[in-house]
Write a structure and sequence with these properties.
heterodimer; A: 138 residues; alpha/beta; Hypothetical Protein Ychn, Chain: A; five-stranded parallel beta sheet; 5 helices; 5 strands; B: 126 residues
């Protein structure tokens, strides 16, 4: 029996709001390192994780310009995770909820991210060994 | 595959979304053939309470014409064949025991949840 798993993650949180976004990406990274096939359904604010227009900024408190500060851009984390997954022999399908994208004007995503719907999420979950929902908490 | 969606975080941007995004997702996936049910717990049990009125949001000349109607949305789920469970203790702790609720709900006690979860392939907690 193969140890290869397929996991689906449903994310909801927007980046830069709480630690759940980073935790979610770290969990995806663990799956990636194991060579698993990964599906991500980015729902609501999490569509901004892969938003292509994110830009670095300086940080006056640190006395650093934008280049020196090298601020975390979640779009780069997403791209890097996608590349790492493929390098490790896995596949990754990152779907941004289309209606969530539209209401936020978040249509420009990094390469490899596609637009989808709840139907895609259901198909992903059906084809997976398990699904983890990381919902926003009020 | 059969999935139970636990909806617990309540009224999360419902004025902006004009619905609850967990309820909406369940309804939409049911429409594409998903086999799923819903469990309302915590503050989300209030979604089943009749008589809610979220209308009236207004900023200057802008008025919301389609406020969230969460009770109707829960009722629509049930009409679509989704079993909607509600935790009885969560109703009681919020003073909602005996208030008019959406028809067709299935009341469950906390002590019954583990057995309920066992009836599903996956449990998603929203």
């Amino acid at each position: 029996m193969s140890d290869k798993k397929t996991l689906t993650f449903a994310l909801m949180d927007a980046p830069y709001e709480n630690a759940r976004s980073t935790t979610a990406l770290r969990l995806i990274q663990i799956a990636s390192k194991r060579g698993y096939d990964i599906n991500v359904f980015a729902y609501e604010g999490s569509v901004f994780l892969a938003f292509a227009k994110q830009q670095r900024h300086p940080n006056a408190m640190h006395g650093r310009n934008a280049e020196e500060e090298n601020h975390v851009l979640t779009k780069e984390l997403v791209s890097s995770l996608m590349q790492e997954t493929v390098r490790n022999g896995g596949k990754i399908d990152w779907v941004n909820c289309g209606m969530c994208v539209d209401e936020r004007g978040a249509g420009e995503a990094v390469e490899g991210v596609r637009r989808g719907s709840p139907a895609d999420f259901w198909k992903m979950a059906e084809a997976s060994d398990n699904t983890l929902v990381i919902g926003t908490r009020g | 595959m059969k999935v139970l969606n636990i909806i617990e975080t309540a009224y999360r941007a419902t004025l902006e979304e004009q619905d609850d995004t967990g309820v909406w997702l369940a309804y939409t996936m049911k429409g594409v053939g998903a086999d799923l049910d819903v469990l309302l717990r915590g503050n989300a049990v209030n979604y089943a309470v009749k008589g809610q009125d979220a209308s009236g949001l207004q900023f200057g000349a802008w008025r919301q014409t389609q406020p969230p109607r969460l009770t109707e949305d829960v009722s629509n789920l049930i009409s679509k064949g989704v079993a909607v469970f509600i935790v009885s203790e969560d109703l009681r702790e919020r003073g909602l025991e005996g208030v008019p609720l959406v028809e067709g709900l299935t009341s469950v006690r906390r002590s019954e949840l583990a057995r309920l979860f066992g009836a599903y392939n996956q449990v998603w907690h929203w």
